[in-house]
Design goal:
By secondary structure, the chain is α/β, with parallel strands linked by helices. Helices cover 38% and strands 17% of the residues. The protein has four domains: 231 residues, Rossmann fold (3-Layer(aba) Sandwich), CATH 3.40.50.970; 127 residues, Rossmann fold; 173 residues, Rossmann fold, CATH 3.40.50.970; 65 residues, Alpha-Beta Plaits, CATH 3.30.70.
Length: 645
Amino acid sequence: MSHLVEGQAGDRYLMMGNEAIARGALEAGISVAAGYPGTPSSEIIESLAKTAEARSLYVEWSTNEKVALEVAAAASFAGLRSLAVMKQNGVNVASDFLLHLSGSGTRGGMVLIPCDDPGALSSINEGESRHFARLVEVPLLEPGDFQEAKDMVKWAFELSEELQSLVMMRSVTRLSHASGDVTFGDLPEAQREAMFKCDGFILDPNVGPVMGAPVDYKHGLQQGKVKRAEELFEDSPFNTYTGPEKPELLIITSSACNLYSKEAIQLLGVENRVGLLKLGTTWPIPPKLVGKHLGSTEKILIVEEVVSFLEDQVKILAAELGAAIGTQIFYGKRDGSIPMVGELNPDQVAAALAKILGLETEVVPEDYAKRTQEAGFAGAPNRELTFCPGCPHRASFWSIHNTLELDNREGFVCGDIGCYTMAVLPAGFSTLKTVHAMGSGTGVASGFGKLAQFGMDQPVLSVCGDSTFFHSAIPALINAVHHKSDITMVLLDNSGTGMTGFQSHPGLTTDALGQEAPAIDPAEVCRAIGARVEIADPFDIEATQATLLDLLQDRKGVKVLVLRQICALSPEKKGKKLFDMALDQQVCVGENCGCNRLCTRIFRCPGLVWDHDKQAARLDEVICTGCGVCASICPSGAIQRKEAG
């Protein structure tokens, strides 16, 4: 059983931030949790799934984030406490329903937890979710440390039920994935009963129909809820101040930047000069509390990630209170004191503090930083981002690239988000030419495929993974079929949501709870939509290329090639080999004409290493997964494979 439910009130654990959030949800008495996997958010749903049986929860990995929000909303409408979880990109996907949900209101406490990724450490962008709270007019909370990551969740549910509104609680990578000490509270004993009451008066929020109409009434109601939240935020225990009564400089911050700011103050030893106002309630900001501290000094530094969301609010408030608090000088994103892009760290905050306070302090000496970097890379091989050994995506893009070259009509591939995004790099033979949102590869390709009337004769392909297919590629494929767009979709079916840790999706036979579930075959879905569908094994290079070439020659509408091979790192396949591999260095022609290190210079599987002493390739038997593909691409026959015994 998970320590998330074994732990008693008062017990102290070292926990990842996402685990602390999950424990907070359990202490709040949630009944339903839904999400879509996306780093850095995935562990919240995974942690709750492990406790589902013990705590009688319903937990699911939904088809996409919009559906996750809808599933959680249904539980709220029935009087249960529910949670929706996603990364920052997912809030964009959910935003259509999110806007309607803010208008209709909620019943049982409902919290949306987006986990943002400043610096795009595991994302293709660092877009943030805070703006959605202001856009749709729901309260926004941000925990400033790991204990708050747990405690604030419970308070968020209480706030939601008092306001009858969705509440957003934003985390970031350094809170979600770092760890800290967390003291547990009590777990509730009573279970709520679900009942959707919907036969009452149309404007009754508790027993009437749930909808955002009439807009003039419901919109005003929601704005009243925000105003009430503002009043409650004035006394929130998650807004704290430390420092002198009249600081020389006031830092206003939130989220993980609270930790960076604390450390920066300590690094410079300016505790008696700098005040730190940490806000856990960041939209709307509490005007009386913030105004009080604004009036205590003339210099204010706002520290936040990523763009000037908090800074803009503080400046607006300062303008409104100008007569009462006097004139201030603001530092932050807008004046360049704090970078407008990327993840922050204590050194950056300390550098800004030192400059504002006129301190001659070199936070990190230049020679130290240089020596640290050199030491960190000493002896490490120079290796670019690449697919894992035995990854079916490498084989897939090898075939796609070579088939397009053979076709010789300057064909190109539109892609989207997943492990296969690396195919824009040499790891995937620079095959992808567009990369945007999940499912956008097929949507963009659908547009390209209708440009023949303007003279375009280039073959158009798209790629997407199996989880992405269910998430958002199906509508794009329907659009392409309906409009007779001339495209070929290559569905990279590796039997899991590989990029985020093999969470379940509708194409698999189990759900988030590990229970048996009916699998939806994406190939059959594509056929039902009306596309021509072929299936191949990407490890069979010859058959894959022949099939793909045939599809490229078919100019009649939408074709789908399903390349089906399980991910080498999946729990089902890990440690199992298709083939026993051998490499005869006497046969390897290496850098000579006719090869020129094709396997290690171009194909680049990490399981193949160039032996400088022997001037030949060799197998790294420790990491080779025995997929056998390298034997198909070796022109000299130096690499051999036989069925694994």
